[in-house]
Amino acid sequence: STGRLPYSGANVSEVFHATISTQPDAPSTVNSAIPLVLSNIIMTLLNKNPDQRYQSAFGLAWDLQRCLAEWA
Question: What is the pTM of this model?
Fold first, then answer.
């Protein structure tokens, strides 16, 4: 766990603005205990460009299974 949300702000408007205009820190840079492969999956899910996100639940499931196999 990073212990924090990917976007923050003093109010809803600031959080909304941060969500559409800034790239969050990769989880592995916030907490070095988070495996890089899991951090990359999370960053793909948070990508601003829809074409750069997972195009299906199958793709996400595939990467999560690969992540689990590497972790085990």
Answer: 0.88
